[in-house]
Structures are given as C-alpha cells and as structure tokens.
Amino acid sequence: SSGINAEYGVYRFGGDPNRITVVGQSSGGTSALALLSSPLAVGLFQRALVVSPGPEQRFDHVQGDKFQREIWKVLEASGCDGKEDVRQCLLDVPPRYLTQREGVEGVEGRGLLSPSRLAFYRFPRSQGEAQDIGGYIVTDPYVFPRPAKDIKHNNFYKDPKIKVLISNTAQETYLQVLKEPSLRIKTYEELNNTLTPLLPNISPDNTLLNKLYRIYGHLTPQFFWDTFVSDMRSTCPCNDLAADMSESTHHDVYRLFIDYNIKNGTGSGLPAYHVFDIDVIFGDKRLDKKSWSKKDWEFRDMLVGAWRDFASGKDGWGTFPKKTLVLGNGKEIWDETENMPHEKWCEELRKMDLTKYGLQN
Q1: How many other CB atoms sit within 10 Å of the CB of residue 82?
Q2: Contact (CB, 8 A) for 58 and 173
C-alpha cells in the first residue's frame, strides 16, 4: 500500500509516477532489497538506490553452530520438519505465527524466531561451512526471500528492467560480530591486542591474524582496522551482492564506491564513514563545511550528480561488473574503473570465508 500511496503522492505533486526511485541507507538499504525481492512491489518503482545495505547477515560461527542445533525445533513447531522444500514451507508460514506466539522450549527469544534471527543470512556451522536454512526477513504481513540469491531467479518482474545502484563507503567501520565500532588504534601492538580476542568470533582459524597482515600489513594500524572491518562488513559483501544481481535478466546493476577523505578543518582528514555520503549530501554537524576546500565541494557535486543522473534515468558510467564508479582523493575525483572495489583483497577474504558477515547497522 505504501508503494501505491507513493505513486499517488508523486502524481499529486506534479511528478512522474512512472519514474520513481526508492532510496534507502543502512537498514533502509536492506529494506530496499526486500522491496526488490517482493512481487507485491512490481511496477511501483523503476529504480532503487541501495546505500550501505546489509546484503548478507548471519551470526558469528559459534552462535551459528548453536542455532543449527536448535533449528529442528523451529521447523517442527512450524510444521515444516520433514517437508521436501523446507524453505518454501517457511516462506508460506504466516509471519505472525513465527514471531508472536509463545517461544519454543529450548530456543531463545519470543516466538518461534526471535527478531535477531530474521535477516538475509545463512547460518554457518562451527567450521565455517554454510547451509541455507531460512535466509528470509519477516515483515508484517509478508516474508521476503534473500535478494542476492533469489532475485536473479524470480519470474515476477516485467519489462522494462529495474535499475539498481549499490553503493557503500570505504571506511564503514562497524561489524557486530567484532563488537567494537570506531576504535582508535595508534600502534600495531594495540591492533594485535584488539584483533586477537575478536577473530575467534568469525573463524576457528588460529593463523587468521597472520593472513590478514599479508593483505593489510602495508597500512597504518588505524587504516588496517578500518579497511579490514569495512571490507568484511560492507565492501566485499556489496561486491558479491552486485555480482549476483547482475546475473538477473530483469535488472541493470550499477556500483558506486566512495573513498574520499575530507580534511574538515582538522588537517588529519575525515574518512568515508558509514552515513558519510548522506551527511555530505544533506548536511550534518559532523562535517564542518565552512572549512571545506574547493575539491571537497567538487566531490559533493559529483556525488549529488551521480545520484541525480541515476534517478533521472541516464546510463551513467556503465553497468556492473564491467564498470565501477569510484569517488576518491586521486588527481581525478571521478574514476570509472573496470575493477570491483578492493577486488584483490575481497578475493583473499572470500578464500577465508570472511565475506559472509555483511551486517546492517
């Protein structure tokens, strides 16, 4: 109904109801992915601007193993235990039944599934193996499938293609399973002391720290932390999401990566944090625009222009995976590259099974 109301509202204010762009950032980006996966939203918008979403959500490998041992209780209580297509059975169960009835004995949380379990994730086993059990998000009154895995196989879209822009920033610096947002790390000793107790949350591999140093060891301790967490939390999962969705015959997928550093009057620089793109466009007290350089304003104009061109239907810089637009601090702010953002680093993280922890804030 909200989509229908949006069409009516656009029409009332003189807009074109056949040229609606859905925009969401962080959890809003995840909501935009849910709309892209819903047959109920077909025809209600033509473009989706997905900013720093949660493309893949799961527990850490310890919690995931515990849930694997409990999932049969949920399946049994929902009537899906033993069904040939367990996932479809779960999709057919009324969401309120899952979330509002009394909890299942031995399973934490209210209802058959607690809210923390309703997301676009796969549940990993203790050794990092992945098994798709549910992988859905519950929202009253519908259950949406996983966008990256299902959206390219659906048969409910019509022509013309939906255009999707997937964007994130280089220094998102937040990951729930590591439990430490926005740390300030000055030395490699502090970095080691921070990572050593945290890495077991995401992998049983006791050589993981050494492997990460081979990838990020050339960076300062702070940027090692920021970049590793951001790659694992956002950049690499967004690459995977865009790659999956680009295989769909119903979507044109575009990729935007923001790696710009604003001096912000401090001289030390303000990296492209989570919500940075929103703050740059719409303004926030974190950004002292009075101290911005001419190049900072040029960056803002290019970011606004990229969003505006996408929403207005221009072809822009080319579709993913052939092209990615990077807005950075190089000699030229606007860089159209044939590489995925941090492609080589993401490839190494993927080998270590660390790109599965993308999580919305």
Answers
A1: 10
A2: no
- Tallying the residues shown for the chain, one arrives at 361
Helices (H) and strands (E) in the chain, counts: 13, 10
Question: Which tokens in the block code for residue 215?
Answer: 């990838």
Average model confidence (pLDDT) across the chain: 74
Q: What is the pLDDT of residues 18-62, one digit of tens each?
A: 888 999 998 788 788 878 877 778 888 889 999 998 765 544 445
DSSP 227-275: HHHHIIIIIHHHHHHHHHHHT-TTEEEEEEEEE--B-TTTSS-B--BTT
Alpha-carbon distance values, 333 to 223, 255, 302 (Å): 20, 16, 8
Pairing mode of beta strands 47-51, 162-169: parallel
User: Going along the chain, which residue ranges are E strands?
Assistant: 21-25, 47-51, 123-124, 130-131, 137-139, 142-144, 162-169, 251-259, 324-328, 334-337
pLDDT, one tens digit per residue, over 343-357 is 999 999 999 988 776
Query: Using CB atoms within 10 A of its CB, is residue 193 exposed (0-12), middle (13-18) or buried (19+)?
Result: exposed
Place of tokens 């290019």: 302
Residue 51 token pair: 């900013």
Could you give the CA distance from residue 146 to residue 179 in angstroms, rounded to a whole number?
25
**Residue 313 binned pLDDT confidence (cut-offs 50, 70, 90):** confident
pTM of this prediction? 0.76
Mapped onto helix, strand or coil, the DSSP state of residue 37 is coil
CB 272 within 8 A of CB 169: yes
The band of 179, judged by pLDDT with boundaries at 50, 70 and 90, is: low
334-337 vs 324-328, strand pairing mode: antiparallel
- At 264, list the tokens: 């912000």
Complete DSSP assignment for 171-196: B----GGGT-TT----SHHHHHHHHH
What Cα–Cα distance (Å) separates residue 19 from each residue in 6, 163, 252, 310, 336? Answer: 11, 11, 15, 11, 26
Of 41, 63, 160, 199, nearest to 119 by C-alpha is 63
